[in-house]
């Protein structure tokens, strides 16, 4: 079975090998079923949009490349007046709920089926990403909740750092367009093979 990332009824990485090399230096988990929306403030309504996020979600959105997270919802700045909002379990209904929330102050587009997303952890995750991504991900430079739009190999990706695991391993999420799922997976699994790579279910 080959992965078909355009088939949104299955995970973007379905059918791809679940391991490379020997060991568990890098552990990947697909982030599937998320509600994802892009929010763009209209005109001079950035402050109004931010106030509605604060009131409704208890989060402080920022124009900086940072992620704010509470309960099942995260909001990440990806550009001036532009954010990605993520709900862990809401699916396509999330964007519609945001349209109702923001009304005239922001434009909302549903991105729930647009991305292939991997959460990467393990003791060798930084060494693997350092092979593929041309930014400094040392913990002093790329801290928890930092967000970067960068490249992985030749692919445009969004990378952010999330909370460390209970084993104190660093954790990252990497996003690419869903049509690039196979290429993203091959790049990461091949890069991690010398340390051991496994993909597990959520």
Mean pLDDT: 90
What is the CATH superfamily of the largest domain?
Probable tRNA modification gtpase trme, domain 1
CATH architectural category of the largest domain: 2-Layer Sandwich
The strands making up the biggest β-sheet line up spatially as: 1-12-2-8-11-10-9
Question: What is the CATH class designation of the largest domain?
Answer: Alpha Beta
Structure class: alpha+beta
Low-confidence stretches: none
The total count of strands amounts to 12
The helicity comes to 10-25%
> What is the general shape?
globular
Distance between the termini: 21 Å
Largest sheet descriptor: 7 strands, mixed
Order of helical and strand elements? EEEHEEEHEEHEEEHE
Number of helices: 4
* CATH fold group of the largest domain: Gyrase A, domain 2
Q: Give the DSSP E fraction (strand runs of 2 or more residues).
A: 25-35%
Question: What Rg do the Cα atoms give?
Answer: 17 Å
Counted up, domains total 2
């Amino acid at each position: 079975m080959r992965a078909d990332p355009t088939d949104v009824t299955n995970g973007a990485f379905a059918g791809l090998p679940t391991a490379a090399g020997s060991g568990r230096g890098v552990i990947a988990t697909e982030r599937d079923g998320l509600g994802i929306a892009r929010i763009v403030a209209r005109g001079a309504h950035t402050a109004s949009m931010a106030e509605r996020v604060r009131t409704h979600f208890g989060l402080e959105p920022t124009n900086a490349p940072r992620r704010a997270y509470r309960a099942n919802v995260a909001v990440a700045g990806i550009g001036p007046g532009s954010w990605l909002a993520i709900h862990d379990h809401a699916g396509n209904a999330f964007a519609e709920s945001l349209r109702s929330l923001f009304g005239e102050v922001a434009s909302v587009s549903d991105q729930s089926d647009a991305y292939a997303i991997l959460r990467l952890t393990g003791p060798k995750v930084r060494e693997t990403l350092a092979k593929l991504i041309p930014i400094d991900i040392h913990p002093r430079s790329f801290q928890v909740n930092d967000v970067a739009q960068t490249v992985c190999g030749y692919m445009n990706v969004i990378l952010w750092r999330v909370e460390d695991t209970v084993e104190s391993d660093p954790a990252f999420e990497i996003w690419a367009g869903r049509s690039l799922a196979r290429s993203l997976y091959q790049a990461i699994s091949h890069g991690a093979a010398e340390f051991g790579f496994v993909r597990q279910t959520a």
